[in-house]
Amino acid sequence: MIKRNVVVYFVAAALLAFSGLPLAFAESGKDFQIGATVAAGVPHPLTFSLDTKINSSFAVDATHGYFGLTLNNVKVSTSNFEIRGRFHPFYGSFFLGAALGRHSVTASLSQDIVLTDSGVSITVPTKVGASIAALYVTPQIGWFITFGPGFTLGWDLGVVLPVSPSTTINVETGDPALNTLLPLVKQTSDYTSMEGTVQDKGNQLAKIPLPYVTVLRLGWMF
């Protein structure tokens, strides 16, 4: 019990220390400010925000992000848009926040599928894509620090909770003349494997709760 109390007191003291930074580090001295920041983190690797400080306690941010990469030959891209509210209970840099947004994840995989009938083989270049979209809510805590004339630095920590995700599967061939063969392509084990792969990659980013971490936020408030 004593050890647990020590931990609780330590965490509380740390939060108060960070949130109670001198005004030169936590506030610019202006009641209303508007600015822009860029942030790196997960699950949205790169985002850009329009940040509005209403007063020393409340702020609202609008954020958009996009990022693409390749995972095991699967092309994955993600985009998001969200509105975030921040409450600074100690009038400093520390805040309690929540965001409401929508993100989409697109995953695609290309592969040649061979169809064989009566000893005749036809190679069908096939591309399978999964588009997964979901609303999400992100409760979070963090620090949003404005230095002197306006330089801004921040970190955030929370969890992304998806709401009402939906999935769309698209299949196409590299040759429109082969589109009539798509029903046969979908019956093959290769196609089933491709569809499962792109869905798994998309689900990892759009359908399950994910940790939300902003490793670094930089910007300027005016």
Write the layout of secondary structure elements.
Layout: H1 2-19, H2 23-26, E1 33-42, E2 46-53, E3 58-71, E4 74-87, E5 94-117, E6 120-147, E7 151-173, H3 182-185, H4 189-206, E8 210-221
Structure overview:
With 222 residues, the chain is of the alpha+beta class. The protein has one domain (22-221): Beta Barrel (Porin), CATH 2.40.160. Helices cover 20% and strands 60% of the residues. It is built from four helices and eight strands. Strands 1-2-3-4-5-6-7-8 form an eight-stranded antiparallel β-barrel. A hairpin with a 3-residue loop joins strand 6 and strand 7 (151-173). It is elongated and about 80 Å long.
How much is the average pLDDT? Answer: 86
Taking Cα atoms only, what radius of gyration do you get, to the nearest Å? 24 Å
Question: According to CATH, what is the class?
Answer: Mainly Beta
Poorly predicted regions are: 1-26
Main sheet? 8 strands, antiparallel, barrel
Compressed to H and E, one letter per element, the order equals HHEEEEEEEHHE
For the termini, the CA-CA separation is: 48 Å
When the domains are counted, the total is 1
Helix proportion range: 10-25%
CATH topology: Porin
Number of strands: 8
Structural class: alpha+beta
Strands side by side in the biggest sheet: 1-2-3-4-5-6-7-8
Strand content: over 45%
CATH architecture field: Beta Barrel
Number of helical segments with 4 or more residues:
4
